[in-house]
Amino acid sequence: MITFTVFPRLRQNPNEKNNPYIENFIASLNREGESSVINPPHRNPLLSILPPKRWGDVIIFNWFESIPDFKYGLLQAVTAICFVTVLKLAKKKIFLKRFFCRFLKISNLLSPVLDQIIFHC
After folding, report:
1. What is the band of 103 on the pLDDT scale with cuts at 50, 70, 90?
2. How far apart are CA 110 and CA 14, in angstroms?
3. What is the pLDDT of residues 33-50, one digit of tens each?
4. How far is CA 106 from CA 24, 51, 70, 93, 116, in A?
């Protein structure tokens, strides 16, 4: 069985309207029983995937280019870049799904270690 780690996987407050994209994506990965998403929802999705036990065979980053916009964004962006490098050294498959078509610095920094960049514009 192939395992996936999907970023971001946020724990949603029941009173908030959440974006169904990630949960629909995860449901489709889990549906057939041939794969599973192993990282649980968390309040801080980047910190939640740092422990190695939450690393799947394939790591999929959605909206990775928006990390600098998060609270403590600069610190999280540096952590994310270092984390992706560690994942690559661990021979994980890394996919970056970009949703903003403008050219962003974080994608430039990561492009040498990514297996695939998927644009969704």
Report:
1. very low
2. 34
3. 899 999 998 888 888 899
4. 26, 22, 14, 18, 14
